[in-house]
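Appendix C: a fully annotated inverse folding record. The material below is reproduced so that readers can follow the format used throughout the book. The structure is listed first as C-alpha cells, followed by the designed sequence.
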C-alpha cells in the first residue's frame, strides 16, 4: 500500500504499524503542525511486544530512546511546530524483579522490574518527567511550558506515608523560538461572558475506554493541546498512537492525523475507534516492515 512518506498531503487519518524510531525517518520533513503524544511510562507496564519503549532495564536507556524518537519528531515538524508531551512519574521498585497482575489491568503484571537507578534509594520518586524534559532541552528543543494536568478523579492509592498522586506533566516543547500558538482558542472562562488566558494547571478528569485495556490520556486534554498548537485543517502526529485518541480528536475538530503504533492489536483498536467517528472519512492502516 505504500506509506505516508510518498505523499505530502494526508487525506484524513493514517495509522502506521511499526517502531517510531524507524517510521519517522521515512516521513517527509516539515509535514506536521504539531505532535501530541503520551509515550509508555518507564517500568510500569509490560505491553508484551519486542521493541517496546518503557521496558528498558536502565532509566538512562529509556530517556535516550525517547530522545531518539523525538529527534525524528522534530525533523517532521514544521518550523513553527510544537510538541505536546504527556509523561508520568514512577517510584523505585525496591529492586523487586516482578509485579503481580492487577485484575483490572493485565498489563500491570510484569515478569521484569528495572532495578533502582544509580544513586536512588528504595521508595523514591524518580523524577522521570523532568529528567526527560531536561534531556530534550539539551538536545535542542525549546522548553516553553510545564503544564500540570490535575486529575480530580485520580486512581486511589493505598499508601499511608505520602499524598496520593493526582497529577501528571504535559510539556510544551518547540523547534524554534517563534511558533504557532493560538491563545485565543484556549482561553478559560472565568464568569459568564468573561475569559482569561489559559493557566498552566489544567483540571481534566481521566476517561475510561471499554475498548482499550491500558491507560490513555483523555480527549479533553488532547483537544486543548490541539487547538492551541494547530489551525483547522492541520496535520497532527502521534508517534505513540495507542488507542488512537489523538486521531479521534483530530477528526472531530477538523484536522488530519498520522499515528504510529508498535503493537498491531492497539492499532486495530485505534482503527475501530476512528472509523466510528465518521465511517465515510478515508482511513488508511499501513503495515510497515
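Designed amino acids, in order:
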Amino acid at each position: 500500500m505504500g506509506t505516508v512518506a510518498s505523499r505530502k498531503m494526508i487525506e484524513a487519518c493514517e495509522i502506521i504499524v511499526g517502531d517510531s524510531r524507524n517510521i519517522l525517518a521515512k516521513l517527509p520533513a516539515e509535514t506536521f503542525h504539531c505532535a501530541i503524544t503520551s509515550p509508555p511510562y518507564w517500568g510500569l507496564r509490560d505491553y508484551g511486544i519486542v521493541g517496546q519503549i518503557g521496558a528498558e532495564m536502565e532509566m538512562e536507556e529509556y530517556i535516550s530512546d525517547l530522545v531518539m524518537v523525538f529527534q525524528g519528531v522534530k525533523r517532521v515538524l514544521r518550523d513553527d511546530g510544537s510538541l505536546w508531551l504527556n509523561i508520568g512519574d514512577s517510584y523505585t521498585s525496591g529492586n523487586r524483579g516482578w509485579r503481580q497482575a492487577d485484575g483490572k489491568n493485565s498489563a500491570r503484571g510484569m515478569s521484569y522490574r528495572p532495578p533502582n537507578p544509580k544513586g536512588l534509594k528504595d521508595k523514591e520518586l524518580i523524577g522521570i518527567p523532568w529528567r526527560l524534559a531536561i534531556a530534550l532541552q539539551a538536545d535542542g528543543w525549546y522548553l516553553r511550558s510545564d503544564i500540570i494536568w490535575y486529575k480530580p478523579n485520580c486512581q486511589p492509592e493505598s499508601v499511608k506515608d505520602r499524598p496520593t498522586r493526582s497529577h501528571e506533566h504535559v510539556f510544551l516543547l518547540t523547534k524554534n523560538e517563534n511558533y504557532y500558538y493560538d491563545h485565543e482558542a484556549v482561553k478559560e472562562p472565568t464568569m459568564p461572558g468573561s475569559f482569561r488566558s489559559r493557566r498552566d494547571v489544567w483540571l481534566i478528569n481521566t476517561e475510561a475506554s471499554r475498548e482499550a485495556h491500558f491507560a490513555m490520556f483523555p480527549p479533553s486534554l488532547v483537544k486543548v493541546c490541539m487547538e492551541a498548537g494547530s489551525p483547522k485543517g492541520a496535520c497532527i502526529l502521534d508517534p505513540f498512537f495507542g488507542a488512537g485518541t489523538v486521531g479521534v480528536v483530530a477528526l472531530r475538530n477538523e484536522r488530519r492525523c498520522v499515528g504510529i503504533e508498535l503493537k498491531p492489536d492497539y492499532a486495530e483498536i485505534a482503527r475501530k475507534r476512528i472509523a466510528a467517528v465518521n465511517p465515510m472519512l478515508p482511513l488508511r492502516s499501513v503495515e510497515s516492515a
